[in-house]
Amino acid sequence: MLVAFSVAPSGTGRDDGSVHDAVAAAVRIVRESGLPNRTTSMFTELEGEWDEVMAVVRQACDAVAAYGSRVSLVLKADIRPGYAGELDAKLDRLESAIERNG
Length: 102
Description:
single chain, alpha+beta, 4 strands, 25% strand
């Protein structure tokens, strides 16, 4: 299973509206999970079995909750039993197709 998610607090009381400290707490949880992951400017991608991935997402939400009165979670999942290593393999297939169809 691949999951792309974004989690952020609201009601932080910060004048600048920044959520980077909260997001850093969430990303730390993901990285410490030991599951394959990648973070971009908008989402964090995570790969593993359903229960382990969802447990990490929940822990990330719990970490963010300490920074505000509400938590917003956006989540997209690619559930494909029997496949592993797709975090990179999907990108490899895409790059190959781009090169072939140039």
